[in-house]
Amino acid sequence: MSPQPTARLAVLISGNGSNLQAILDACAAGRLPAEVTAVFSNRSDAYGLERARQAGVPAIACPKPREIERRAYDTALAAQVGSYHPDWVVLAGWMRILTSSFLDAFPGRVINLHPALPGAFPGTDAIARAYAAYQSGDILHTGVMVHLVPDEGVDSGPILGQEIVPILPTDTLADLEARIHAVEHRLLVDTLAKILSEE
Ligand code: GRF
Predict the structure, then answer these.
(1) Residue 125: what pLDDT?
(2) Range of the structural domain that residue 176 is part of
């Protein structure tokens, strides 16, 4: 059987890039039939850009200038990302809401990782919000999901993968964050592997 073609991934980040690192490591280890063709960050100081450079991957800082309107920024970002001809665009810790000016350039091909279960804690600080909800007795566990981003909805697209993450009475917020990130690193790679195998 001929080997699977190597899928081209563009990865968008805003910070540490530990999920990017999980993808880079999986590609290098042959656990993911893909290559990261470029990494983009809206934060020039994101450590994830350094992770890309260390992996020999083009690392592009694309901060949004204050005076540029968000749809114009998204249009320009889509052109930059598109110039690397990605098969998939992976939002891994990307902290800006993307408008249709970006999304329509990659229909059905934008994937987002979010550290909460579908519909639970959309938006920022999802882990801290889940921790507080547990402390208040409102939830018994939280989770992680990987989903498509078909439109400007926040963390609300069709689910590609999800996993429950337990919260323990003895947990500090840091304990829960560590447990969630460990699930993210595995779920993101496993979900990417699944969708690539279905192509
Ligand atoms: C992760 O929890 C991600 O889901 C969220 O930002 C955090 C940072 O991830 N959006 P990373 O270490 O930058 O990949």
Answers:
(1) 97
(2) 7-198
